[in-house]
Structure formats: structure tokens, C-alpha cells
Write a structure and sequence with these properties.
alpha+beta, 297 residues
Length: 297
């Protein structure tokens, strides 16, 4: 039979891996990668491309995470401009704006843009909650290895499943925000895809990168860990049931039978209040006399 200890050990290990993967995904800047062929852009006769290719971020190769967008190469002089210097972090990166705190200017933007902001905020919030639940799952899982109780293992499973759910929901919010950014919002001057010139669109390749992949991997590993905790709890419960001594079980069954017979043969409780002794008939009188009923025959 499978060992509950082995399942618990693997469940805790998978929970730690899930926490690690989601944490790395959350903290790194490689969710999306944009590769721009600037050599071809320099040949473009489009006036918009000629004016903006050295002064706008979306004309440069970059990789984007939850909190910042970082630019590759040395052609990043646009970061020194007054328009972007307040959002600049770590020399070649720009801070991702979540409109916190909200300003009156946000109310003037389109409804799709406001929805985009809410989805990106939800993406961040759900991943934070997922990390908290996975951390709690690690603690409860370690406790289940120490206590080896079915209830503790099931509790760890529930907590880890909740962490996996919040991770999946956070990834879903990310895809919703990305869909709006790529297919719905057409506000000029903010670098949304629908406003790109044809040459920029042709010479830009967008890909999902390893930070994004780790997010989904962490969700899957967390779901597997929750299933392992459930199996371990089931094994612990049945293992304890199988170890119950047969004699103890028989004794308990016999005691229940005696209690049932006593309830049938004993008089009502009020009968004992007057100090009277129960009477079981002439057969019991003969047994108390020592002849066990043999005088009848």
C-alpha cells in the first residue's frame, strides 16, 4: 500500500516549488518581450516613424514585467527626456503606471482604458493573495508531516487549492488586460497597438517569456500539491482504521450489545429511585442459589 508519509513529503515539496515559481514570476520582468527591428525602421519613409522612432518607447526592443518595462541596447536616450524621467527606474527601465492614487485625469480616459487599469490591479492583487495562501500551505503542510493527521492534511489541501485558484485568476486578469491593450484601446500618444504605424507593426514581434510561463507552471504545481495532500489525508485515515485491534473492536461491539440488553431488561429509571433491586425471574434466583436451574429436571 502507498505510504502517506511519501505523499505528504511530495505534497510539501510541490507546494514549496509552487511558491517559488509564482514568487519568481511575480518579481521578474519577462512576462512579455517585444523585439523591434530598428534597422528596418530606419528605412521607413513613414513620417510618423521618422519623427517618433528615437523618442518613443514602443519603437525599441523591450521586456515587460508586472512593475516595470526594461529596454535593451544603447539607443535609450528618450529615457532622459522630461516626459519619461519621472517614471525611470534602474537606468534603462520605466515604471508601469497603475494610476495609484487615481487622479481626475483618469476619469477623462476611455472606459476600456479604465477597465485595463482595474484588470492590471486585480492581476497584481490576486498574485499577492496567491503567494500568501501558498506560504500558509507550506506551513500547514509541514505541520501535517509532523502531526500526521488526516484533518491537517485536508486543511493543507484546501489552502493550497485556494492558492492555485488565485494564481489562475491572476493569470486570467493578465490576459484580459492584454486583450484590451492589444485589440480594443486606440488612444493616440500612449503606444497602444491599434495606433502603431504599419511599418512598426510589421517589424515588431511580441512573445510571452519565461516569467509568464512560470506563473502557469506555479499554478499547475500548486494544484498537484493540493491533490497529493488529499490523497495523503485519505491514506492516513484508512491507515489508522486498519490498525484498530480486532479485540478492541470486538469488545466494544460486545459492550454495546450488553448496554442494549440492559435497556431492554432493566425497569424504568424511576424504579431505582426507591431502592428496589431489579428482578430477572426465577431463573436468576436459581443461579444465585448455585443450582443453575438443574432442580427443575
Amino acid at each position: 500500500m502507498a505510504s502517506s508519509t511519501g505523499f505528504l513529503s511530495f505534497a510539501v515539496l510541490f507546494t514549496v516549488f509552487a511558491l517559488f515559481f509564482v514568487a519568481i514570476s511575480f518579481s521578474t520582468d519577462n512576462w512579455l518581450v517585444f523585439v523591434v527591428n530598428r534597422a528596418e525602421l530606419k528605412k521607413s519613409p513613414d513620417a510618423t516613424v521618422v519623427v517618433d522612432r528615437n523618442r518613443r518607447p514602443w519603437y525599441h526592443s523591450r521586456h515587460r514585467g508586472i512593475f516595470r518595462t526594461c529596454f535593451e541596447g544603447n539607443e535609450t536616450s528618450f529615457l532622459d527626456s522630461n516626459e519619461y524621467k519621472n517614471d525611470r527606474v534602474d537606468r534603462n527601465c520605466l515604471y508601469v503606471n497603475y494610476e495609484i492614487p487615481e487622479t481626475s485625469a483618469l476619469a477623462l480616459r476611455t472606459s476600456d482604458y479604465r477597465l485595463l487599469i482595474h484588470l492590471t490591479r486585480s492581476h497584481v492583487a490576486f498574485l499577492i493573495v496567491a503567494l500568501v495562501f501558498l506560504l500558509i500551505g507550506c506551513i500547514i503542510g509541514a505541520l501535517s508531516c509532523w502531526r500526521s493527521k488526516a484533518g491537517v492534511a485536508r486543511s493543507a489541501a484546501v489552502v493550497v487549492f485556494v492558492g492555485a485558484f488565485f494564481t489562475a485568476a491572476g493569470m486570467a486578469f493578465f490576459h484580459g488586460a492584454e486583450y484590451l491593450e492589444w485589440n480594443r484601446i486606440d488612444e493616440a500618444g500612449y503606444g497602444f497597438h491599434l495606433t502603431w504605424p504599419t511599418d512598426l507593426n510589421t517589424n515588431t514581434v511580441r512573445e510571452y517569456s519565461w516569467s509568464y510561463i512560470l506563473g502557469w507552471v506555479g499554478m499547475g504545481v500548486a494544484a498537484i500539491a493540493g491533490a497529493l495532500f488529499l490523497i495523503a489525508g485519505w491514506l492516513i485515515r484508512h491507515k489508522r482504521h486498519d490498525k484498530m485491534p480486532l479485540d478492541d473492536y470486538s469488545m466494544r461491539s460486545r459492550n454495546k450489545a450488553y448496554e442494549y440488553m440492559d435497556q431492554r431488561h432493566h425497569p424504568a429509571d424511576e424504579y431505582y429511585n426507591y431502592g428496589a433491586k431489579p428482578y430477572y425471574g426465577p431463573e436468576m434466583d436459581e443461579r444465585r442459589d448455585g443450582n443453575w436451574g438443574w432442580n427443575r429436571y
